Structures are given as C-alpha cells and as structure tokens.
C-alpha cells in the first residue's frame, strides 16, 4: 500500500500526460452531451421515448464505428481518428440544434453521428490507455481521469443551467433554445482545442493484424458477461437523470445544481481511491459502486418525487466513477494477459468488448421502452432502473470468478 501510495504523475510518460490533458479538456464537453442534449429533446418534445430513440441511435452507431475503426487503423494515423471522434460530437450537436422540429428521423441521424463520435473516441482512447499505462498505474490513471470528469460535472452543469435559465432576458422556449445553440458553439471550440493538444503526443498504432474473432479464451467469456451487465445500465442511465429532472423540476437550472451536489464528493473519492488503492482492491471498489447504484435506483422507485430524484442523482454520481475506476483496469488487465496467450491484436478485444456492451444497452433500453409501451413513461422511469440495478448485482459474483481465473493464469505463467 505504501509503495502504491507514492504513484503519481512522475510515473507517466509525456504522451500519457498529454492524453490525460486532452481528456481533461474534453471532459468539459461530456457533461453537455450526457445531460443537456437529453434535456433539450425533453424541452422541445416532452417525450421520454424520443430521448430513448436518440440514445438507441447513439448505441447503434458506436459498435459499427468500432468495427470500421479497426480497418481505418491500418491506414490512418490513430491521432487523426481520435481527434475526429471528439470533433464529431460537436457536429452532432450542431445538427441537432439546426432541426426545425424534433422528429424521429432527425433524432436518429443526430444520434448516429454522435455514436460515430463515441465510437472513434472510445475505441482509440481504450487502446491508447492500454498502450501507455501499466497495471500498477491504472488505478491512479482512472482515479485522476474520473476526478477531472466529476470536477467538470460540478462546474459545467451549474454554469450551463444558470446561463440557460438566467443568462438571457427571457426564459421562453425560443430564448432557451438560442442559449442551447450558443452552448453548442462553445462545445465545438473545446473539441477543436482538445484535438490540437492531443497531437503533441506520440502514440503507436495497434499491430497491423486481424482484429475480428468470434472465439475467445474462457476468461474473456467472463469479461463479456460483465460487459453485458454494464451495458444494461448504460442503456438509459445517461439520459435518466435529465428525464427525471425535467419531469419533476422542468428547469435546466435545477438540473445543473443537482448534478453538481454528488459530483463534489465523488471527485474527492476518486482522487483518494486512485492514489491509494491497488489492483487487489478492485473487487471491493467495484462492489461498492454497484451497491451505490442499487441504492440510487431503490430510492428513485420508492419515492418517485423531487426528493427521490435528488437522492438518485447524488448516489448515481458517486456510483458511476467508483465503478469505472475498478471496471476499466480489470478489463485492460484481462486484455494484457489474453493478447499474449492468444497472440492477438489488443484492439480485437476492445472491439469484441464493445459488442458485449451493445447487447446490454439494447436490453436496458428495451426494458425501458417495453415498460413504457405496456404501461407508461412514468412506470418506465420508476421501475426500469431498479430492475436493472438488481440484475447488475450479479456482476459482483462474475467479477470475483473472473479475478480468480485471472490470478490462476498469472500464477501459471509465472
């Protein structure tokens, strides 16, 4: 523990530090994408189903772009692909704001562009982290990364929420929409700046080899099971806070303030966990994150009012980064081991993992839409989260089995 406690920025290469700086700049964009695009759709359509259709379009575009990215890596510099991913998020928002009405066709088109953005961004980011960090530094890397993200989750929602509701002379729908367009322009500037900074680093592309496989080691089967369960919550957890806040508060100002409450505590927790935790603590950290997510969903279902929404968002903002600081290092360590055992391109595992997430996202979004169809949107907002949170608790058992198998493989190789 004492040795790991001394891990700091000095343990990262120059290129890793540039990647961290790039992610810090882009972290100012992510809360806008996560929160305010959904609230924009809700404000202009008042239809949670349209928010879900937009989210499904995003989640469909991601794995398709992951697959295309595998081919592009053979001919296009990884820095260009990663930068394009960031820039496309701005393009998607510009397109969304240019729509005369929130139609399903427009939503799907904007969602697919955003999905392409996420696909290029995350496919290449996952590989870049894998290539520039080691297992012992990844807890600190993700602790630092999620610290920046949660910090911007404090700053950005408050500023944008205040600006949209108080930064203009009128709070009419058209006035607020004009505010959204200005926010979109600022987002575009941040994506350009992040892209420029990233190009100061030096990064090697994955080996020019086959990256599409359908049969993997049994250890990877456990990783895919975790991916499906993780994807369940991702199916609509990104847009759920915005939908709940707009339902009970109908104010972007309240949305921004609520998002910031839990994020302050989460930011401090992430920095401490990343600095002091070691690989052996990942199962405990992962379990705590899942329990927080269950409690967040439980209180939302039990109360389903403005107070319940505040508690839900507070606990969720703590749960998500705690889960990430454990999940991603587990995933990358498995890739480290299996890429050597099976002699495969690391990107083949990143791609396959994304399809596992996609299956989970479809099931999660399908749960919401199914309840909304056979019941109503309020039932879906109230019960779908709890159903998924209960199922996700299975990840604790699967993670334990995975880590036990991983340990046996490492001992065998040693």
What does this structure look like?
This protein has a single domain, classed as Growth Hormone, Chain: A (Up-down Bundle), CATH 1.20.1250. The protein is built from 16 helices and no strands. The protein has helices at residues 2-5, 14-26, 30-45, 48-72, 78-98, 104-132, 135-166, 173-198, 218-234, 240-248, 252-276, 282-303, 306-341, 346-374, 377-392, 394-413. The longest helix has 36 residues, at 306-341. One of its GO terms (molecular function) is transmembrane transporter activity. The chain crosses the membrane at residues 20-41, 53-74, 81-98, 104-123, 144-165, 180-202, 223-244, 256-276, 283-303, 309-334, 355-374, 380-399. Pfam families: MFS_1. It comes from Flavobacterium degerlachei.
Q: Notable features of this structure?
A:
single chain, mainly alpha, 16 helices
